[in-house]
């Protein structure tokens, strides 16, 4: 397995995975929307997408990081917004390797850290995150303004 950082030339490889990810979270399949959204993120340098490929060069998973900053620390941070592995490849350490690649990217950009959110009932993901060093925040509440 290899992990690459997606550029515009590899965009087509990640679009079906991103569409599957959105479907997993209850959204209708829309490959055009997936392509347009990811294309804009890459064109505007608004995200970093790391793509896992198997030994036959088949795309099997991805993670997407969005840049952010900590005002208090006066430092860059990353938001790990998406992590997805094809169902038939789950349980083989692909998610862990994508998380490690995300960490390596954050280190290389001198970031303070990486934040992420997951559903309270997504215990498999919680176990994975904690196994690679993520710590659940018990100090702050998260809020969101839906517009």
Summarize the topology:
Layout lengths: L1 E4 L5 H14 L6 H13 L4 E6 L5 E12 L4 E11 L8 H15 L5 E3 L6 H9 L16
Parallel strand pairs: 4-5
Antiparallel strand pairs: 1-2, 2-3, 3-4
Uncertain ranges: none
CATH architecture: 3-Layer(aba) Sandwich
User: Strand sequence of the main sheet, in spatial order?
Assistant: 1-2-3-4-5
> How many domains would you count in the coordinates?
1
Question: The CATH topology, please?
Answer: Aminopeptidase
Rg measurement, Å: 15 Å
- CATH class equals Alpha Beta
Q: What's the mean pLDDT score?
A: 96
Write down how many β-strands occur, each being a DSSP E stretch of 2 or more residues: 5
What spatial form do the alpha-carbon principal axes imply?
globular
Distance between the termini: 40 Å
Descriptive notes:
By secondary structure, the chain is an alpha+beta fold. It has one domain: Gcn5-related N-acetyltransferase (GNAT) (Aminopeptidase, 3-Layer(aba) Sandwich). 35% of the residues lie in helices and 24% in strands. It contains four helices and five strands; from the N terminus they run βααβββαβα. It has helices at residues 11-24, 31-43, 94-108, 123-131, and strands at 2-5, 48-53, 59-70, 75-85, 114-116. It has a five-stranded mixed β-sheet with strand order 1-2-3-4-5, sandwiched between helices. α1 crosses α2 (31-43). It is globular. The model has no long low-confidence stretch (mean pLDDT 96).
């Amino acid at each position: 397995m290899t992990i690459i950082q997606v550029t515009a030339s590899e965009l087509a490889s990640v679009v079906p995975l991103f569409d599957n990810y959105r479907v997993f979270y209850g959204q209708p399949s829309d490959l055009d929307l997936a392509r347009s959204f990811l294309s804009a993120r890459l064109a505007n340098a608004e995200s970093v997408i790391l793509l896992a490929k198997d030994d036959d060069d088949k795309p099997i998973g991805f993670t997407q990081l969005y840049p952010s900053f900590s005002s208090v620390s006066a430092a860059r941070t990353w938001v790990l917004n998406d992590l997805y592995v094809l169902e038939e490849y789950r349980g083989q350490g692909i998610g862990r390797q994508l998380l490690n690649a995300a960490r390596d990217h954050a280190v290389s950009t001198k970031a303070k850290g990486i934040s992420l959110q997951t559903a309270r009932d997504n215990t498999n993901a919680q176990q994975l995150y904690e196994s690679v060093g993520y710590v659940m925040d018990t100090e702050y509440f998260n809020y969101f303004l839906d517009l």
